Amino acid sequence: MPSTAVGMRCGCVCVGGGGVFKLRAFMWVDAEFPAKRAAPLSPAAASASTKFFEVIKYWCVCVFGCLRETDRTLVRVQDLTAEKADQLIWLRARVHTSRAKGKMCTLIRKCHLITVEMSLFCNCGALFELRLLTPSASITKESIVDVEAAVRKVEQKIESCSQQDVELHIERIFVISQAEARLPLQLEDAVRPDGDGEEEGRATVNQDTKLDNRVIDLRTTTSQAIFRLQSGVCQLFRDTLTQKGFVEIQTPKIISAASEGGANVFTVSYFKTSAYLAQSPQLYKQMCICADFDKVFCVGPVFRAEDSNTHRHLTEFVGLDIEMAFNYHYHEVIDSITDTMVQIFKGLRDNFQTEIQTVNKQFPSEPFKFLEPTLRLEYTEAVAMLHEAGVEMGDEDDLSTPNEKLLGRLVKEKYDTDFYVLDKYPLAVRPFYTMPDPNNPKYSNSYDMFMRGEEILSGAQRIHDAQLLTDRATHHQIDLEKIKAYIDSFRYGAPPHGGGGIGLERVCMLYLGLHNVRQTSMFPRDPKRLTP
Amino acid sequence: MPSTAVGMRCGCVCVGGGGVFKLRAFMWVDAEFPAKRAAPLSPAAASASTKFFEVIKYWCVCVFGCLRETDRTLVRVQDLTAEKADQLIWLRARVHTSRAKGKMCTLIRKCHLITVEMSLFCNCGALFELRLLTPSASITKESIVDVEAAVRKVEQKIESCSQQDVELHIERIFVISQAEARLPLQLEDAVRPDGDGEEEGRATVNQDTKLDNRVIDLRTTTSQAIFRLQSGVCQLFRDTLTQKGFVEIQTPKIISAASEGGANVFTVSYFKTSAYLAQSPQLYKQMCICADFDKVFCVGPVFRAEDSNTHRHLTEFVGLDIEMAFNYHYHEVIDSITDTMVQIFKGLRDNFQTEIQTVNKQFPSEPFKFLEPTLRLEYTEAVAMLHEAGVEMGDEDDLSTPNEKLLGRLVKEKYDTDFYVLDKYPLAVRPFYTMPDPNNPKYSNSYDMFMRGEEILSGAQRIHDAQLLTDRATHHQIDLEKIKAYIDSFRYGAPPHGGGGIGLERVCMLYLGLHNVRQTSMFPRDPKRLTP
């Protein structure tokens, strides 16, 4: 049971593996401390416990000889609530901050004491440098430690932690992995809202420094929340579609011919020839439809060799792709996609509030709004709204990025939604394989979807007749020889079909109201960034 | 209701979108047939139904003007059971085979009749060649048709179909998409077991022809079953891991440095510099562990520029990757992975019997056997078993492919399992980042997993100490400059961790007892194949 001796109280705040969970832990140290902790296992007894030994020897030798249990249960930080009060528990955690209370007592110094004590047993077969055990060693921030501690209820909520009702009184602490003393960035700086604490001279960390040191930046509560939510988006996407009878497919990324005419494509050396990286899985999705898979989806990397250095372009991103045969009208496809998006939005709203709130602390934004059923506007309506707002543009002009954003604001004002579909784009601004609108040859059966005024999906009914496809490709002056395989796919019976591709990073960025797609790409790639 | 007139009976067997479902359909034709079918909509009434019109004009004009309903419900082939007997239904299906019964009556000729009749209404705004409506047109095999038909119970089971208790008596039939008359391969040939019907001169289709015409080959019941099962493997993999608290991550495929020393890596032109295609997501998985994600998985393409033209090598395949921090022993990792595999095997056994049986019809194999808990052998035990079987090899030699297969047979005989783990590989045959065995420096904390005697996973405890990693890389004569970023990832506190990568196509191939990984890759890539 926990020591009740009165001595120096050392505070350290630990972050658990769960990332967004935090609690406060203390260690009480009295004069007898070194003596009390000096009764470890003999090396012989320890090596009998070979299952444990096998690993522990490679961790940190200061642990070896001190742990008697090999199957001890480690409690997770998020499970440390008032219900566990007065229990003695084991916890593995990363040291987030450490600060002194009382007269010059710091956690680091106390751990240092333990380390010195442990060093008595450090010559039992250690294979690597015992730098952790030198007298100058200390428990640095970001080190991983095992602690044995008593859970204690507190009277005043601990505002700085996620676990506000309890604190830990540490009995023993062992270093599992020691971090280098100099960190390339401080986590508390990396999560500071822009402008916050500027007067006190507190730093924030710029994006390139964060990305250069991503392994540390990903430990911040903000990053942990973003990527756990991203994992949720993928799962909700797939679960919804599987429920709807879609089949997951795997499409090749190395392809023999550039699918969309050869612009913006990366070239790969492929043995004695050259190949390309797929700019989308579209041809393969369509082949699956022609092969009777009926409804398919895929989740995978998409490559664009565009030299665009904007907040929303990446050279490699994750595509959430859908393609499906329909019965009578391509709006069946739109309905399937919008319902999938709505299920994602609902799932995030209902199951990821902790993550959303965590991100909001650093990057405040309005909650994401959506309608059921999803708003669908026709392109001509959108142009009319823009005209009314004073924008000068032709009926068949493509939307510029600023006009897309303006339209997003106009739609939000009028319909109170952050998500909508823009249907029936002018035929001239869409790729050759887009099905023309049979009622008005200037328009097409194609659509984009928008979140907070930015495009997240582009899609269309595709031409499934080889002759019409040939005619349209000729009209676009595309070399028919290069797309022969594509056109031939439709010669042996093809059902009417449509689909679209969603950018995962954009969905996460816009749902959370962030402003740079690099924040929602774990290891972003752009024309200037290839590392880490 | 269905015509009761006695006339010529034409048979056609349709395959539904579900791929593995098949049923028989007939059409009765009497002398009055043309007259009865000549009462379509007027063009004016038809164009009022614009929602339908919009699409249908681009399908097949012979349909236009004949369908009164736009929201008619299409029944799926698999739902056509005895319960639907005597109902009049609509079905969209692909014409699989068509054959004549009675005096010279073929389906094709009868459809031809309808087509001629439809051509009366073909001049209403058709945009493309009306080749379907010429007197010589016919419903070719592989065309997609809509039929209105009565479901009729049969007295004798129809052995050649999946829907054995009912047949369809077609009232009306419309061509949705006409296939070209000459198919590059016949589906019935493509599903014929090797050697079957050889005496009668029946053909089988060789693998290259199948792969060259994949869009048709994927329509075979065998391919449909394989890839629906593959979709199931991915879902079971992810669901099991999500349940275990794993987080899905997305890792980049374009990387700045070749991760494993530069051999067998594809080079990409990246703007003004060069980059590489990732040979595995391992570095990124490990970085996520160092960034406190604790347990992660990813599903994505993996690229190997190996000039290996074997039955089990691809240059691009799908990796099911796992990485996790563990508490006390790397066997925690093995246990997580083997349990995941067992959940996959159980899920396939319980939910994919139709698919398994379908594949077995063409490629017979024994049911896949596995134990709970999974059998784990140590490398030294395996070598002893091989020695006993007369194989000459050193204790620390790597296993050759024939020896792996032999070992698989020996293990099957002795333990009656098709799945097992081989643990504690010789350190010398594993990559530099593999954690040595602390008890015996000749071995390592690493493992492979096998299905039916072939490797499907390679994994290990990874070295998480920067200094030990540096020592091991130096021992392997690896240029430290090139792996600096990798080593630096472990400098800021890294928990002990391990993982592994599973080849999706191999798992599917070996579970189903197939003999070439190209059968379980939808669009395989090897040194000689880049298309389709």
From TrEMBL, chains A, B:
Enzymatic reactions: tRNA(Asp) + L-aspartate + ATP = L-aspartyl-tRNA(Asp) + AMP + diphosphate
Record's keyword annotation contains Nucleotidyltransferase: no
Domain Aminoacyl-transfer RNA synthetases class-II family profile: 227-532
GO biological process: aspartyl-tRNA aminoacylation
Keywords: Aminoacyl-tRNA synthetase, ATP-binding, Cytoplasm, Ligase, Nucleotide-binding, Protein biosynthesis
Major subcellular site: cytoplasm
Top-level taxon: Eukaryota
EC number: 6.1.1.12
GO molecular function: aspartate-tRNA ligase activity; ATP binding; RNA binding
Subcellular location: Cytoplasm
InterPro entries attached to this UniProt entry: Aa-tRNA-synt_II, aa-tRNA-synth_II, aa-tRNA-synth_II/BPL/LPL, Asp-tRNA_synthase_2, Asp/Asn-tRNA-synth_IIb, NA-bd_OB-fold
Known function: Catalyzes the specific attachment of an amino acid to its cognate tRNA in a 2 step reaction: the amino acid (AA) is first activated by ATP to form AA-AMP and then transferred to the acceptor end of the tRNA.
Family named by the database record: Belongs to the class-II aminoacyl-tRNA synthetase family. Type 2 subfamily.
Known partners and oligomeric status: Homodimer. Part of a multisubunit complex that groups tRNA ligases for Arg (RARS1), Asp (DARS1), Gln (QARS1), Ile (IARS1), Leu (LARS1), Lys (KARS1), Met (MARS1) the bifunctional ligase for Glu and Pro (EPRS1) and the auxiliary subunits AIMP1/p43, AIMP2/p38 and EEF1E1/p18.
Protein's name according to its UniProt entry: Aspartate--tRNA ligase, cytoplasmic
